[in-house]
Automatic annotation (TrEMBL), chains A, B:
One of its GO terms (molecular function) is DNA binding. Transmembrane segments: none annotated. The keyword DNA-binding applies. SMART domains: HTH_MERR. It comes from the Bacteria. This is MerR family transcriptional regulator. SUPFAM superfamilies: Putative DNA-binding domain (SSF46955). It comes from Streptomyces natalensis ATCC 27448. Keywords: DNA-binding. Residues 10-80 form the HTH merR-type domain. CDD domains: HTH_YyaN.
Amino acid sequence: MTTTEAAVPSLSIGEVAERTGLSVHALRFYEREGLLVGPVQRTSGGRRRYTSFDVEWLLICVKLRESGMPLADLKHFAELVRHGPGNEAERLRLLDAHRQRVDAQIQALEECRSVIAWKVGVYAEHLARGEAGGLWDPTP
Amino acid sequence: MTTTEAAVPSLSIGEVAERTGLSVHALRFYEREGLLVGPVQRTSGGRRRYTSFDVEWLLICVKLRESGMPLADLKHFAELVRHGPGNEAERLRLLDAHRQRVDAQIQALEECRSVIAWKVGVYAEHLARGEAGGLWDPTP
DNA sequence: ATTTGATCTAGACCTCGCTCTAGATCGTAG
DNA sequence: CTACGATCTAGAGCGAGGTCTAGATCAAAT
């Protein structure tokens, strides 16, 4: 013990859950599914200890998941990183493909947004006019 | 109440599937789940005939679903419309709440996008430099 | 020493949103 | 009339992504 603690903080699963927004269940699930780059360290008593690298990786996972990357792709990415250098081109392809999907998703959402906003406007106007106006039903 | 009888072509389920992008299975499923405003008309032989109103509504449903509205909310919206006028304020709330969620989603995606784009940049640069550079692993 | 709370494993279970199957019927083309 | 494809119903099945349970163990506080 003594001086080395500050360099490798080593968090418990609960602390990691707090920091990543994932539940402890999800953390264990991700590990089982092979979504982590390396095996999580354990204490003598068998409890998980996460390094800051683990947490960083998990934060990336969260971002990728948030943006709709399937767990399978995440797993693939983790495998690539796990096998070390030499496959950066593939990692790049994977990420870039995902970025493109995200772009498409943003575009689609913006289109939806404008359709919805227009509808909201229709209803708002209708209400403002004291609901006397003609609002035909299969909502215009 | 509509002006043109000829403008109500009455489509089969297959045709509606084509036009909406939903499968025939999904169309029957949506109907069972009460996601449609009215009951779909039937031929004497029991086959569904969709009006252009049905199709319009379904196209709205598709947009709302695409942007992540759960079927339960869609059902609620359909119920409001089904019960006719008088609840426009609630319809407005429902749609506007969804619009806000979509906005948040777009924002989140844009954040993800920039994180990913940055990472793509890191890998690309690394590769351009002939992968001699230092790429530490839990992907920087 | 005891209690309390966090964590452990393995595996069952859940929600969501469809998708598919089976077996019957309809309707049109030859 | 016969075939054949589209449609019908009821209900089972599926894949994704977790979530939850049971029963045990660990670690810290009283």
